[in-house]
Here is the input.
Amino acid sequence: MHHVRQLTIGFLLLVTIFVGVWSLRDSSDSVYSISRSAPNAQLERNVAGDESDPGSEPGAETQGGSTPSSSASPSRSLPPSPSASPKPAPKPAPVEPAPRPPAPRPKPAAKPSSPDEAAKARVVELVNVQRAKNGCGAVHSDSRLATAAQGHSADMARRNYFDHTTPEGVDPWERAKAAGYDTPTGENIAMGQRTAEDVVEGWMNSPGHRANILNCDSHAIGMGLARNSAGTTYWTQMFGSV
Here is the structure.
């Protein structure tokens, strides 16, 4: 029995030693795992900027004894606080457009100062009607040509002659230049017709006068009308290129 007891005690002692050694080995492996593996893993997470690790805080030391580099961590932007959010700019009040002044009414054409002025204006209208029928542009009244034409009509009426050239030999081109117009293209004269319609009809029935009226190279016109002491009319029509 004594021998059996010794064997039993010896066996229990061996079992106790074995259990103690096994427990000590397992505890050493756990420490090793934490001290070698976990600090390196934690350092890698901090350097990479992993924000999912609940055990890490910005600026705290890692278990390996090093601080994460601030230059390696990704930057973050925080949303603005409600108090710092910019207030929307107030919408400007609608500006009503300033009322436009009424458009100026076109000035009525100046009325002729005399029956003779009205007759001269009517001749210009009739001439442009004939030019339009024959494919020519309208002529416009030129004050210089009108001065030359009116002077010739008045001279013929006063001195009772009827010609393109004065008794002194002054021709239409000289009269136009004396009035300041350098490029006259033609002159028509008539005597005795009482109305604008009559004088234009007479000119259109004469080949030379008709050619002057329908010259498409002419762009300006000047009219003259005067009466002698007996009331006979003297008409002068001068054309120009500009």
Notes: Helices lie at 2-47, 115-133, 143-159, 172-178, 196-204, 207-213. The chain has six helices and four strands.
